[in-house]
Every structure is written in C-alpha cells, then in structure tokens.
Amino acid sequence: MRIAVACSGLDVAYRFDHAENFTLYTVTNGIIVECQSLPYPSVPQPAIVDFFKSMDVVALICNTINIEDARYYCNADIEVVAAVSGIARTAVEQYLTKTLIGADEMCHWDDDDDDFPGEHTCHL
C-alpha cells in the first residue's frame, strides 16, 4: 500500500491546493520501505485520484483541504487525513502507529450527512 502526503519540500503543505509535490510512501507490513517525490501535477483532481488509485494509495495526508477536493478522494476510498503539520515522514509514521494499534482515526467520514444525503462529511 502507499500513503500520499501533500508537501512543500519535505514538510506537509499548509494548503493542499498550494502543495509543491506529493510524497508517496510505500508501506509493507507496517514499515516504510520506499519514498518517492512527485511534482504536484497541473491536472484536475479526478485525474490525480485515478493515478493514486492505480498506485494503490490508501490515504492522503494533508493540512487544509477544501471539501470538494476531499470528496474526490473519499469517493475513491482513499482516506483523507487532514489537519496534519510538520515533517511528512513523521506524519506517515504517526498515521501508521495509530492505524496499526487501532487508535482513533485522525479523520473519518460520516456517510449519514443529514444536509446532503448520500454525501460524505469529514470529521476531525
């Protein structure tokens, strides 16, 4: 599996839509085994989501992200982990620790949004 982080250099970008690059971490048996940095592409979000799905990305870590962008990932079964700052690798390690020990998710999606039936709401 892979985890994508929206970055500015080696740090989690403050704003998802202003990220300079995505860092993709390959994880095997809970251990980071590879890291690749890709420039942030100037293509529509659905194309990025399709690319991430083809690369087996299961989570996107970012700081701030607008709900429309987050929905693309959520609808593709890519977990969005928002409100994260600091060094990208540290964020991935913390995500893995929380996931592997069964702690609460940093961000989860509620499928029962009363305002918009059938849509997902991010709860931090």
Please give a quick description of this structure.
With about 120 residues, this protein is α/β, with parallel strands linked by helices. The protein contains three helices and eight strands, in the order ββββαβαβαββ.
Walk me through what this model shows.
The chain has 124 residues and is α/β, with parallel strands linked by helices. The chain has three helices and eight strands; from the N terminus they run E-E-E-E-H-E-H-E-H-E-E. Strand 5, helix 2 (67-75) and strand 6 (79-81) form a beta-alpha-beta unit. It has helices at 45-54, 67-75, 88-100; strands at 2-8, 11-12, 21-28, 31-39, 57-61, 79-81, 108-110, 121-123. The strands form two sheets. Strands 1, 2, 3, 4, 5 and 6 form a six-stranded mixed β-sheet that branches. The chain has a two-stranded antiparallel sheet with strand order 7-8.
Fold blueprint:
Blueprint: E1 2-8, E2 11-12, E3 21-28, E4 31-39, H1 45-54, E5 57-61, H2 67-75, E6 79-81, H3 88-100, E7 108-110, E8 121-123
Parallel strand pairs: 1-5, 5-6
Antiparallel strand pairs: 1-2, 1-3, 3-4, 7-8
Number of helices: 3
Note the run of SSEs as H and E.
EEEEHEHEHEE
Shape designation: globular
Instruction: Give the amount of beta strand, in percent.
Output: 25-35%
- Strand count: 8
| Helix content range | 25-40%
Specify the structural class. alpha/beta
> What distance separates the N and C termini?
23 Å
Can you summarize the main beta sheet?
A: 6 strands, mixed
**Structural Rg:** 14 Å
Overall mean confidence score, pLDDT: 85
User: Which ranges are low-confidence, i.e. pLDDT below 50, for 5 or more consecutive residues?
Assistant: 116-121
